[in-house]
């Protein structure tokens, strides 16, 4: 049976620090190392638990720093925003980003205000997690998400409720592969994975990577930002989003959000998802760029509305 988990995957590029989205920040508290013995038989989790001071707006909130292992033995670092709910929303960052990406922390705080627990984590090779960053790499990130979802069932009696993905592809691929998720939020996902490669790797990328085995992507100062390996690039080129989306279960509800002014991934990609995903809702945010720089409030509002509506529907079906 599919878990009632929301998985939210976020955008490829970082949002500028200046944003019109404002939520009360959680008080800083001392981090205390704690050993967590989970009732889940599949995994025992080591965690750093941060005990948060009481707030008038969020009276009982624990923000937990959690360390889990992926299938490759790499440690993945995440933050559990514990609001006491049984459901949990798993937040996944996009390309060259992290769990501390503006939209993810904003949404986690917004979910806390609605008393919905959220978990945001760094994929391997990103943020605080172990591993080496790789361009493409969708298959391994889907496996990382699998590790995070299995572990989220161990934090307490949580039921994973939704996946959010900024970049979209990882959560959609996950839903097509594992079939244990009922709700997915795809934010600015790319439908045609052949696009966008030349902009990052150059027009002769295939010839160069076949010859050298990798391409180093540098900034204007000539410093290496990241290395694109042949293996990771082939993973991207061999990923068929059309076929994957057709394999998503009918009872998995997918919300795609896209900005009409997205300068990195065209809004047409969102329209393609709407054509092929069985149980799909499309929301275009007018005027929003790829990072939703001036539309953080609207982005969070759309996601929260979807999550709450799906939770209400689930509650009704459980009591009927």
From TrEMBL:
It comes from the Eukaryota. GO terms for cellular component: cytosol. Gene3D superfamilies: alpha/beta hydrolase. SUPFAM superfamilies: alpha/beta-Hydrolases. This is Serine aminopeptidase S33 domain-containing protein. It comes from Linum tenue.
């Amino acid at each position: 049976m599919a878990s009632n988990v929301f998985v939210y995957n976020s955008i490829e590029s970082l949002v500028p620090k200046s944003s019109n989205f404002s939520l009360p920040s959680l008080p800083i508290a001392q981090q205390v190392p704690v050993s967590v013995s989970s009732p889940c038989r599949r995994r025992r989790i080591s965690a750093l638990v941060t005990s948060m001071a009481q707030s008038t707006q969020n009276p009982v909130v624990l923000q937990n720093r959690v360390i889990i292992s992926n299938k490759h033995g790499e440690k993945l670092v995440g933050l559990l925003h514990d609001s006491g709910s049984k459901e949990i929303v798993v937040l996944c960052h996009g390309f060259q980003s992290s769990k501390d990406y503006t939209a993810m922390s904003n949404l986690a705080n917004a979910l806390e205000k609605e008393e919905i627990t959220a978990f945001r984590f760094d994929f391997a090779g990103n943020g605080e997690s172990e591993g080496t960053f790789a361009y493409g790499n969708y298959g391994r990130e889907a496996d990382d998400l699998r590790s995070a979802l299995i572990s989220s069932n161990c934090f307490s009696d949580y039921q994973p409720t939704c996946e959010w993905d900024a970049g979209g592809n990882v959560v959609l691929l996950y839903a097509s592969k594992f079939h244990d998720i009922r709700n997915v939020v795809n934010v600015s996902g790319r439908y045609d994975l052949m696009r966008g490669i030349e902009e990052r790797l150059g027009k002769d990328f295939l010839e160069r990577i076949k010859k050298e085995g990798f391409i180093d992507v540098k900034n204007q100062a000539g410093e290496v930002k990241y290395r694109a390996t042949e293996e990771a690039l082939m993973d991207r080129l061999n990923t068929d989003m059309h076929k994957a989306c057709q394999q998503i279960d009918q009872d998995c509800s997918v919300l795609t959000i896209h900005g009409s002014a997205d300068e990195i991934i065209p809004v047409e990609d969102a329209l393609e998802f709407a054509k092929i995903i069985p149980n799909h809702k499309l929301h275009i945010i007018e005027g929003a760029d790829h990072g939703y720089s001036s539309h953080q409030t609207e982005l969070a509002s759309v996601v929260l509305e979807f999550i709450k509506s799906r939770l209400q529907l689930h509650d009704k079906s459980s009591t009927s």
